[in-house]
Amino acid sequence: MAVSPFSDGTPGASQWPIPPNHYFDYELQIEPGHAGTYFYHSHIGFQAVTAAGPLIVEDAGTPPYVYDEDRIIALSDVFEKIDSDIEEGLVANPFRWSGETANVLVNGQGQLPDHAHSSRCDLASIMVEPEKTYRFRFIGGTALSFVTLAFEDHMVMTVIEADGDYTKPVDITHLQIGSGQRFSVLFKTKKRGELSKLQFFMQIETRDRPSLTRSYAILSYKLPSSKRVPLSIAPRLTLPTEKAPLILPPTELGWLDYKLLSLYPNPDFPSTSDVARRIIIRTHQVIGNGSIIWAQNESPWIESFPKEPYLVSLYKNNSLEFPSLERAHANHGIDPVTRTFPAAIGEVIEIIIQNTGSDVGGVDLHPFHAHGAHYYDLGSGSGTYDPVANEENLRGLDLAKRDTTMLYKYAEKTIPKSDMGWRAWRLRVTEPGVWMIHCHILQHMVMGMQTVWVMGNETDILKVPIEHIKGYLQYGGTANGNDTHDPRVVHFKDGN
C-alpha cells in the first residue's frame, strides 16, 4: 500500500480501525514490477490469527518462469485459546503467555494428534499431476511459528520469488519461512512410471520454540485418463502413527542470505557511498513488576499509544508536533517527543535491527516486516553489526528487494542487553507517509515490538487537500461504508 498512505491498514499509525458492522473498500492500482505473492490480514490485536487470506498479483504479460499451474500453500497457527483471551493475557499484569502453537494448518486444514480420525479434520491436499512443473506459492500467515518444511520423496525445489520480487533461481531441499514471509518455488512432479504411490507427506516443523510442533499436508497425485490400468487408489493419508517420514534439518542461520538475487537488477541500487544515515534499532525484552514488553531503542509501541493515528493527527494538527529529524539525529534515529523515526524523501538510509539479550538474558527470533516501499536486504549475522565486514559480503551482488526477513536467534541465553545478532536493510526513501516496521509475530506486536516511521516532510505527506479526506479523519467516518451508505473514497493516484 505504498502509494495509498491512508489505506495501509495500521491503526494508530496510518488510519482508524474499521468499526464493527462497517467495511472499507480497497481499490488497488498495482505498479509494474509488483507481480507476486502477498496476503491480507487484520492489524488489530491478535485478529490476524484467523482474519487473513492470500492475495495474488498476477503478471500482466508472460511470467519470466515457465510452469504449468500454480498452487497456494498458506500456513497458519492454531492456539488453544481465543484471540481476545490471548491478547488480554499478553498485556496483563501479571503477564499470561498465549501458549505454544498447537498445530500449523495448511490452507486452513490440519489434524491435531488426538483428533486424527475426525471427519472434519482432514489434512490439506495439494493436488498435482505427473510430469508437470508447478509454482507453489508459500504464504507465512502464522502468528508465531517459524517453520522448516519439505516434501517426502521430492528432494529439490527452486526459489523464484520472495516477498513479491522475482529472484534468480536458487535450488533448495527444504524451505524456512516465518510469519509475514512469502516464497514461490518451482516444483517438478514425478513421471508416472516413477510413482510407487500417489500420496506423499509435506512435513512442517516449528523451530526455535520451547517445544516442537509437527504438522502435515498431503501432496496428492491425480492420474490423467489413460488406456493403461491406473495405479490403485490408496486410502487417504492420516497422521503418521510411528516415526516421522522425514528428518528435517535444524534452523539454518542466514538461510539464503546473499543468495537471493534480483531477476531484474536495479541500475540505481544505492551504494554504500549513497548512505546518509545508519539507524540502529535495538530490540529488548523488558521484564519486571509482573509485565513483559518489547521495546525498540527503549520505546515500546502499543495500540493504546497514541490516542489517534499519527497520519490523522498530522492532518488535523491535533497538538502533535511534526517529527523532528534534528531530534532524531541526536537520539539514534528516533524522535523521543513523538516516538517516531523520521526520514527525508530521497535520502538513503540503512536500518540495522540489533537483537539483544532480555532483562534475564533470553534471546528470541523475529521476522521483521516493513510497510511502504520494499528494501534491499543486506543479510544477517551474529553479535554486533560490522558495516565494513558486511560490505565485503555484498560486493558484486544484485540484491533482491524484500519486505520481511529474519532476525535470527544465535543463542538461548546471553548477557542481558548484550548484542546477539543483527539484520541489515538499505532503502532509498521514496514513499511519503506514516509506515510501520515491526516484528511480524503477533504476540510480540501486541507486546510492543513495533516502530512508526514518518517518511517525508509536511509538504510531502500532507499533499492531499484536507477537504478530500475528511471521511478518513474520524473513527467511523465516511471512508467506511455500512448498510446505510457506501464509502466515500479518495483515489490517490488520480491526484483527487
Give a verbal description of the structure:
The model has no long low-confidence stretch (mean pLDDT 91). It is built from six helices and 24 strands. It has 496 residues and is mainly beta. The two termini are 17 Å apart. Helix content is 7%, strand content 32%. The strands form five sheets. A six-stranded mixed beta sheet has the order 4-3-6-11-8-9, with no helix packed on it. It has a six-stranded mixed beta sheet with strand order 15-14-17-22-19-20, with no helix packed on it. A five-stranded mixed beta sheet has the order 5-13-12-7-10, with no helix packed on it.
List its salient traits.
mainly beta, 6 helices, about 500 residues
As a whole number of angstroms, the C-alpha radius of gyration is 23 Å
Overall mean pLDDT: 91
Identify the strand order in the major beta sheet. 4-3-6-11-8-9
Helix content: under 10%
Main sheet characteristics: 6 strands, mixed
Structural class: mainly beta
**What is the tally of helical segments?**
6
Distance between the termini: 17 Å
SS elements, strand count: 24
Shape summary = globular
Instruction: Tell me the strand percentage band.
Output: 25-35%
Q: N-to-C SSE series?
A: EEEHEEEEEEEEEEEEHHEEEEHEEEEHEH
**What low-confidence regions span 5 or more consecutive residues with pLDDT below 50?**
none
